[in-house]
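Retry 2 of 3 after timeout on previous attempt. Resubmitting structure tokens to design endpoint.
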């Protein structure tokens, strides 16, 4: 099923799932970590909104598009 998937796919999957597992482990091991308040909001909401919902997804999409354009250019030259 995953045979022939480009390397960038695995990099994107590793980035997104790596982020999830790192922060899941941090939240489980540090007492009270997700409930620390930042600007009146629990900190876990803040960093998940900024990192998890925006920055990481934009980075992964940018990498996918850039690698696909590079692959198409390489195919045109051949």
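Retry 2 succeeded. Sequence:
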């Amino acid at each position: 099923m995953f045979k022939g998937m480009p390397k960038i796919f695995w990099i994107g999957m590793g980035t997104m799932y790596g982020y999830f597992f790192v922060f899941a482990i941090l939240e489980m091991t540090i007492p009270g970590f997700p409930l620390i308040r930042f600007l009146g909001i629990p900190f876990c909401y803040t960093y998940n909104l900024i990192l998890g919902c925006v920055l990481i997804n934009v980075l992964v999409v940018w990498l996918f598009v850039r690698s696909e354009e590079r692959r198409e250019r390489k195919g045109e030259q051949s």
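Attempt log closed. The mean pLDDT is 88.
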